[in-house]
Amino acid sequence: xxxxxxxxxxxxxxxxxxxxxxxxxxxxxxxxxxxxxxxxxxxxxxxxxxxxxxxxxxxxxxxxxxxxxxxxxxx
Length: 75
Fold this sequence. Notes:
Blueprint: H1 3-18, H2 25-32, H3 36-42, H4 46-63
Helix pairs in contact: 1-4
């Protein structure tokens, strides 16, 4: 896992717990304990950050075994 994946994973956790709009970019920068310049190098704007987090989430879901997402037969 590289630095960007770590950051995307941490932002994804925040989004899942609190929602996408719950934190400003400055809030996320503080929570991630990174410099604003680093954040701006990774994401040109908030829309780009959200897009990257969504793509990261989709890629992570694809890595899971197919049967992990299926409901049990008794449901």
